[in-house]
Amino acid sequence: MAYCWVSTLEQRKNGYGIDIQIRDVGRFAESQGLKVWRFYRDEGESGVLENRRALRRLLRDCRAGRVEAVIIPSLDRLSRDLRLSENLFWQFANLGVQVLIADMPNYNAGDRRDVLIRQIPDAIAEENRKEIVERLWKG
Fold first, then answer.
1. Distance (Å, whole) CA 56 – CA 58
2. Neighbours of 57 (CB within 10 A)
């Protein structure tokens, strides 16, 4: 399984749309000898929302034991909120779901240093989102 997300602003700004994320996840999966059976896709929703439709479906399928691993294209495609991201990683771990990160192919959730290395960009992504929001408000 794979999860891809893009907000309208982010898609316009960086051109990292769903199609590119799907491509990147597919390339990663192929390089690892994996098959993606389903893509959970959220488009045009804020990365700080916990209630994204496809994310809810993914978590429901994880709880039902239908998901062993989920691939995300990059850390900031899971969330742009550090607390939410950490909560999601915690939930996946407690459900026995392995999280694979396409642009961090050597990430090992069992290695505390890898976890720290993962958390730093998550914190930066949250700060970047806050800067964007602040600029929009100043507008």
1. 5
2. 15
Residue 125 tokens, joined: 């992504």
Q: State how far the Cα of 35 lies from the Cα of 37, in Å rounded to an integer.
A: 6
Of 95, 84, 93, the residue nearest 119 (C-alpha):
84
> Would you say 26 and 37 are in contact if contact means Cβ atoms under 8 Å apart?
no
Residues 55-97: tens digit of each pLDDT: 999 999 999 999 999 999 998 888 888 889 999 999 999 999 9
Sheet with 69-72, strands from edge to edge, namely 39-43, 2-6, 69-72, 98-101
Residue 10 CB-density burial (10 A; 0-12 exposed, 13-18 middle, 19+ buried): buried
